[in-house]
Specification:
α2 packs across α5. This protein is globular. The protein has 9 helices and 5 strands; from the N terminus they run βαβααααββαααβα. It has a domain of 150 residues: Rossmann fold. The longest helix has 29 residues. A 5-stranded parallel β-sheet has the order 2-3-1-4-5, sandwiched between helices.
Length: 216
Amino acid sequence: MPSPFFSTMLRVGLTGGIASGKSFLLRLLQEQGAVVFSADEAARAILAPHGEVLRQIREVFGESVFEADGTLFRSRLAALIFQDAGARRTLNRITHPPLLRLLSFQMESAQYELSPETVVVVEVPLLYEDHLQSWFDLVVVVSSTREVCLQRLMERNGLTREEGIKRLQSQKPLEEKAAYADIVVENNGEGIALRDSAKSLWETLKRQNVQKSFEI
């Protein structure tokens, strides 16, 4: 997919595996001064009540994945799609086009509304799966060992080990994502270590932004 953007500002794609620490690193970079966007936040926006995306989900998956008040029963839908690859592909076909349109709009607006010195970081869990590398000047992968991700996922979501393994297997292997990355941030320890990594990464991104401004 060709890049729809042209700007002197640095556009950084942030991705990784499930429970590798992507969202935490995104918040830390925002604290450092980055302008951030998140595919997870975009997903919440497109799943607004009475919207077209929810209508399609209801049509395909039925009322069982909805709460009594009409909102999405997220945990039930997640349990379904991580058990059934076909259901997961169907959900992605429904949600990904509007989600990517919203992210594209946010990034395009940023390049016109913000200073050229701005560093924009966009968290996209399925960046490689959706072939979005061309949207970004560089890609950062947050990497953790499989066992660390599994333990975090089990604790965070209350999953069994088997359920956690199925969710990890639903995405491209983290080692493969790291091999494609411009920058890899290891996150196998405590939060304080990731904070230090975020500060170092921010300095690198600022240098990259200055370099890009001279190249344009």
